[in-house]
């Protein structure tokens, strides 16, 4: 499987000539979702779900489909009947040849005064886990963790403890558009030294073979 990091929380996974795209939001490249055979969206926040990007991908490939939670599906299903699937915690499905498990139910707490919305994470091929905006620990071993390193709802101690709890073989940064280049070495050093796993980051557009 080939993993390509796009800007912020979006990644592309490629296997056997097919492409799966997760969380193409408004901090992500305009064409990040184009060419996808399947799209997964963890929740409705615009840095993870940009409706125009998804619509463009679905229009460009009439066979492409979306799997997501209800708040996102409701905004797309009328325009693309039969191609938008609502999923929740505990569901399993196959998307473009990738086996996917759904883990998690709620977005992390931003502030007690802000109501929590739904959020799901996706474990792809029993190996790559994208948690969306939550520190969900799947009840399944994770080989590659897509790690939300910087968000209004987290701090670095929580990120480090999350890596320790999941115990992946490796972790790649996501949710990093708000992290300045000045701060990146600090995050790299602390997560790498304290997380207990192989921690790396990829520049937007860079890839790794898993």
Biggest sheet overview: 7 strands, mixed
Number of helices: 4
Mind telling me the C-alpha Rg?
A: 16 Å
Helix content: 10-25%
Mean pLDDT: 97
Give the percentage of residues in beta strands: 25-35%
Structural class call reads: alpha/beta
- Give the low-confidence spans: none
- What string, H for helix and E for strand, traces the elements in order? EEEEHEHEEEEEEHEHEE
The tally of beta strands, per DSSP, is 14
Shape: globular
Summarize the structure in words.
- The chain has 210 residues and is of the alpha/beta class.
- 17% of the residues lie in helices and 28% in strands.
- It contains 4 helices and 14 strands.
- The protein has helices spanning 51-60, 70-73, 156-166, 184-194; strands at 2-5, 11-15, 18-22, 38-41, 65-68, 84-86, 92-95, 98-103, 121-124, 128-130, 144-148, 170-174, 198-200, 207-209.
- The strands form 2 sheets. It has a 7-stranded mixed β-sheet.
- Strand 5, helix 2 and strand 6 form a beta-alpha-beta unit.
- The chain is globular, with a radius of gyration of 16 Å.
């Amino acid at each position: 499987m080939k993993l390509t990091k796009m800007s912020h929380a979006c990644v592309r996974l490629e296997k056997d000539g097919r492409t799966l795209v997760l969380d193409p939001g408004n901090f992500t490249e305009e064409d990040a979702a184009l060419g996808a055979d399947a799209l997964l969206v963890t929740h409705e926040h615009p840095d993870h779900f940009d409706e125009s990007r998804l619509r463009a991908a679905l229009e460009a490939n009439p066979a492409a489909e979306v799997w997501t939670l209800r708040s996102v599906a409701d905004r797309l299903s009328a325009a693309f009947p039969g191609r938008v699937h609502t999923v929740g915690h505990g569901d399993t499905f196959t998307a473009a040849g990738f086996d996917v498990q759904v883990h998690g139910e709620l977005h992390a707490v931003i502030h007690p005064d802000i109501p929590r919305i739904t959020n799901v994470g996706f474990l792809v091929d029993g190996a790559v886990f994208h948690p969306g905006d939550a520190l969900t620990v799947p009840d399944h071993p994770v080989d590659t963790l897509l790690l939300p390193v910087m968000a209004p709802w987290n701090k670095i101690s929580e990120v480090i403890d999350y890596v320790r709890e999941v115990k992946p073989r490796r972790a790649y940064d996501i949710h990093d558009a708000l992290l300045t280049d000045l701060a990146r070495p600090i995050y790299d050093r602390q997560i790498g030294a304290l997380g207990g796993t192989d921690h790396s980051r990829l520049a937007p557009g860079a890839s790794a073979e898993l």
